[in-house]
Structure formats: C-alpha cells, structure tokens
Design brief:
Number of helices: 7
CATH class of the largest domain: Alpha Beta
Radius of gyration: 20 Å
Number of strands: 17
CATH topology of the largest domain: Uridine Diphospho-n-acetylenolpyruvylglucosamine Reductase, domain 3
Strand order of the largest sheet: 1-2-4-3
Number of domains: 3
Distance between the termini: 20 Å
Shape: globular
CATH architecture of the largest domain: 2-Layer Sandwich
Order of helices and strands: HEEHEEEHHEEEEEEEHEEHEEEH
Helix content: 25-40%
C-alpha cells in the first residue's frame, strides 16, 4: 500500500482527468456492502485512462475496474488500485429513437432501462433490474430470465493490454453464459454500440411486470451482490443453483452477519456487518454441500 500511495501521488498532478482518493471507504462500492478500504482513482476520460494504466504497468502495480459493485466481493483491504470510470455523457442523447446507440461504459443500466420503457426499445428489457454499469454488464454478459445483454451489442471499444484503443466487432463467438470471450485480463471496456429489435409500445408494461416479479422473488431491498453461483448443467438437465440450495434446506442459513436469503437460495444477504472472509466461508460451504449432495459443481458467478 505504501508504494501504491507513492505512485498515486506521483501521477496525481501529472495526468489530467483523474481524481484520487486515498484510503477511501469503499463499502458503498459493492452492493453487498462488505467493509472495504483502498485507494480509488476516478477517471473522467479515455485519454486519462490510457495514461494511468500505462503508468500503473510501468510501476508493476495491480488495478481493477469497479463498476456499480453488483457482482463483486471487495476484500477488507484492497491489494490493488481501484479505478472507477465516470466519462461525460449527455443523457439527452437517449431522448430519441436511433438504430444504434453508442454509449460509454460508465452509463447505468438503470438509465438504459428507463430509456427502453420510454421509447419502447424492444430487446433492452433483458437487463431490467440489474444494478450495473454498461461496461460491467458487457464484461460478464449479464442477463435476466428475459435474455442476455450480449444479444444487443454490435461493437465494443476497449483498451487492450498495451493501452491501445481497439474495436471488437461482435459475432456469434463473442459471448457465452455469463462471460465475454474476447477480452483478456486487464483489458478495459470504454464504450459499446447497442442495437434494438424495433419498437414495442407495450414494453413498459413488460418491464414493470418483470420488476415486480423480481421484487417478489428476490431480496432486492437487501444488501446482496446478486447471484452467487452460475447455473449449471448435468447432461441435458439444467441445474438452477437457487433451487438446489432450497432442496438441501439451506435458505436462511446464517454465518455471523451473512445469511442465505429466505426469498431466493442463490442470494446472500449482509444483514449484520459481515466481513469478506465470513461471506467467502458461507459461499464455499454452500458450494461444497451442493457438490456433496448432487455431484454438481456450481461455479461462482460473483467475482471474488
């Protein structure tokens, strides 16, 4: 952490378009709200990001991009520099119907869902209720029961491992379940182009109904990090992790300040100031128990 702070102080006045916060309380930067402290750099444009990552690599330090924290567990003391993108974006760009929208990675999916509802952009309902940035959602091919965001993406602009800006044209091999197949470790999504499938005047009703369904079936008003496990397959049988947690009777199982949700078995709720280690312990316990009972290996969906 010492050398990290020295490095950040050295670039603070050298790079325009960054804002550095030392020993920042990052608890609110993950939706499960585990206590976490680290050095945070807010980056306001692409050129500043290029310069920053170049300097980080020269100093052989580690970094990670933080989105809205819906799919990540942050350790108590970060072993890497946290970077959050806050690129300028004029929301009036979303006031009219376009064939394709070119959007910064930092734009909120909640803003895009609101646009979909207002304009009736068919297809955009797939990310309803996901508390994430566009870049984070593309990175993990986020989705709901209505579909996956990868089906809407036509092009992604990203910063490669050499800090060069590159463009990836999306094809059938670009995404798989909860995963992108084109970014390498350390590469950062800058922006993307999104299509839609025409206009549906009744889309706002679908979005409203789906939000209501999610609120009724998932602990949306609790501190969670979204789904803990990816769903799995056993031959031709689809294995939904939450259902299997329910079968083994572990809904409501509590460890310290974290518990398995009573509403949905694939969610953990931080109800009492749980720690990273405590949460990981419960996740691994659930994983081992389902493997023991059913012989199914459920992979973690949440980044840890």
């Amino acid at each position: 952490m010492g050398s990290e702070k020295e490095f950040l102080k050295s670039v603070e006045n050298k790079i325009e378009g960054i804002e550095i916060h030392f020993d920042q309380d990052l608890t609110k930067f993950s939706t499960i709200k585990l206590h976490s402290v680290g050095n945070l750099v807010i980056v306001k444009n692409e050129f500043a990001l290029q310069q920053l990552i170049n300097e980080i690599k020269k100093s052989k330090l580690q970094y990670k991009i933080l989105g809205w924290g819906a799919n990540i567990l942050l350790p108590e003391n970060l072993p890497w520099i946290a970077i959050q993108l806050k690129f300028d974006f004029d929301k009036t760009y979303l006031d009219s119907v376009r064939d394709v929208y070119e959007l910064p990675a930092s734009v909120s999916l909640a803003v895009l869902t609101s646009t979909a509802s207002k304009l009736g952009l068919k297809g955009w309902e797939v990310f309803t209720g996901i508390p994430a940035s566009l870049g984070g959602a593309i990175f993990m091919n986020a989705g709901t029961n209505l579909g996956e965001i990868g089906s809407l993406i036509t092009e992604v602009k990203y910063l490669d491992k050499n800090s060069e800006i590159k463009t990836h044209l999306i094809d059938d091999s670009s995404f798989s379940y909860r995963k992108n197949n084109f970014l390498k470790e350390g590469e950062v999504i800058l922006s993307a182009k999104l299509k839609h499938f025409g206009i549906d005047e009744n889309l706002k009703i679908l979005i409203k109904d789906y939000l209501e369904k999610r609120n009724n079936s998932q602990p949306m008003n609790q501190n969670t990090c979204g789904c803990i496990f990816k769903n799995s397959n056993m031959g031709d049988i689809s294995c939904r992790a939450g259902h299997y947690v329910d079968i083994i009777g572990m809904k409501g199982f509590t460890l310290g300040g974290v518990r398995v949700s009573h509403k949905h078995g694939n969610f953990l709720e931080n109800f009492g100031g749980s720690s990273y280690s405590e949460t990981m312990e419960l996740m691994k316990l659930l994983q081992a128990e389902m493997k023991l009972q059913f012989g199914v290996n459920f992979e973690f969906e949440v980044e840890h």
